[in-house]
Amino acid sequence: MSLLRELLFPLIAVVAAFIVGGILILVIGDNPLQAYGLLFGSALSWPVGIGYTLFYATPLIFTGLAVLVAFRCGLLNIGAEGQLYIGAFATAWVGITLANLSPWLLIPLCFIAAILGGGVWGAIPGVLKARFGSHEVINTIMLNFIAVALLSYFTQYHYKTPGDPIMQTVPIGEGAHIARLGRFIPGLPEFIPLNLAFVLALICCGLVYLFLWRTKWGYELRATGTNPSAAEYGGISVRKQIIVAMTISGALAGMVGINEVLGYRYRYYDGFSDNYGFTGIAVALLGRNHPVGVIISALLFAILQRGSIPVDAFTEHVTKDIVQVLQGTIILFVAAEAFFRGPFAKFGLLNRSKV
Amino acid sequence: MAEIFTISLIWSTIRLTTPLILAALGGMFSERSGVINIALEGMMLAGAFTAAAVTYAVGSPFVGLLAGMGAGMVIAGIHAIACIRYRADQVVTGTAINILMIGVPGFLSGAFFLSSGSTPQIPKEQLIPRTPIMIAFALVPIAWYVLYKTPFGLRLRSVGENPEAADAAGVPVARMRYAGVLLSGILAGIGGAYLSIGQSSLFTRNMTSGRGFIALAALIFGKWRPVQTMLACLLFGLTEAVTIQMQGVVKLPSGEDIPVQFIHMVPYLLTIIVLAGFIGSSRPPKALGIPYQKER
Fold this sequence. Notes:
The complex is a heterodimer of chains A (about 350) and B (about 300).
Chain A: H1 2-27, H2 32-43, H3 48-72, H4 80-97, H5 103-132, H6 136-159, H7 196-214, H8 216-226, H9 228-233, H10 238-254, H11 256-265, H12 276-286, H13 291-314, H14 322-335, H15 338-346
Helix pairs in contact in A: 1-2, 1-14, 2-13, 3-7, 3-10, 3-11, 3-12, 3-13, 4-5, 4-6, 4-10, 4-11, 4-12, 5-6, 5-10, 5-11, 7-8, 7-13, 12-13, 12-14, 13-14
Chain B: H1 7-32, H2 40-58, H3 61-85, H4 90-112, H5 131-149, H6 151-161, H7 163-168, H8 173-199, H9 211-221, H10 226-246, H11 261-264, H12 266-275
Helix pairs in contact in B: 1-5, 1-8, 1-9, 1-10, 2-3, 2-4, 2-8, 2-9, 3-4, 3-8, 5-6, 5-8, 6-8, 9-10, 9-12
């Protein structure tokens, strides 16, 4: 019953959001079935559609995991956006500065840079909360803007090719490139930027699961999230857990940089993130803050993102903004779960599941 | 250095401060009632788009302004119903609204104006460059009076500090919170409308560019009080105005432009510092973010 419930509400939220989106499409004079058909049909076509969908899912898995870890400790990390930028820039910085190193050394160093960069940026609001009690939500919002400004400064004044009109750094060394999956999968063309970072994201899902549910540290982190005063009473340092959770959360967000810089653009591109950090909140929530759920909902949001391109092109009025409309509506419905609980309880569907 | 501190700097500061004051005072009513409002950005976007679209269609900026207020209120209504009636997480709902409002204006302008996210130009004589400024600055003493000198203000503050006690004293907690959140939508809507039909002459994609969050920062920096919040808005408006005036005028000794990025950071850094308690303490309303459920 509990598994059913875990699946039921996210599913209802998604369906409800698609109905709302469908009504909107109808209102502006297009055919919702045609639009949704285009959306899913193109995003799930082999090999280009699926390749891009998995590529888009990669950063969302990382940010979804980031939000999940913080959430399990009772924290809301809406700073994944800033953390992933710092991680991406850090990894690009190593890739540029140590460009001539052997790949066997350079790639691990670049990975560490992404993890450390995001981790440090995530640790700041953790420390601020643990030390001064200031709310992580406000601090992470502020740190997002600070990260964007800081990196735009470094890009513009220190790491840009002189004269380049685009706000991007010089390229990283070739030794820092990680392989695209097209090289290993027959039929998947190599121009699709789906790369090893996707595999890394799946591995991280496993690691996060093992950490949270199979280790003592994970137990302490979750205990803090469930009931901080009981955890404190049981000998767990809540302040330490807050810092640990925010650091891990930031590190996971920072790994978006591996996908973006080492696997896709091979340089840092100012403002590259398409709201990955905020979508991560949706991914984690819809995925019920579980690693498996994160994979599934990251795939759903990636399908929306990929599928919106042909919808934009081949319908009369619908633009790719339909993605944000659906995303926002899904989060609203997931957040206001009680909205659906009422009618369901009325029909006696949830009566015996009061756990 | 002297050439940037001119009358035009003062004027520019006032213009840049106006949307911040409107949104921040709105945020104040919502947060003082106990509902976190990080959706100010989304509400401003709703106001900005609707005001521009309606002004373009009807030809009257005052109808446009009213429509902008209405749009802000509708979006605030969604936030309020989710947070108050369905006790959703207020930060999550706010994030959802912000994401939604990145999409909705683009979605609608694609349909109505066949554009990719902006409205057509509005003729100059149909703009209202002054009215919202007067509204904003007049609202500061009004907000102060309402918050501290009227029964409404007392009730609003009481449900934000201690809803149980307020409820016991007969204050309708939910209704007060609805009022607070809806007011925030109306004011943020005016702030957004000012951006599209006051400062410029059309709506462009994501034209608030973070002003809702700067307003939130000003609200915290101003310790959730009207006059201090206005001063914080003026400070943040001034930093932005100086940034704009400096560009291409003031140079580093090496002959390069001064990196504006560091000036952009000022509001955000100040907020973190004040929230950590380094410059006096900024204490949020006690019940901020906690849904209230009446005991049965």
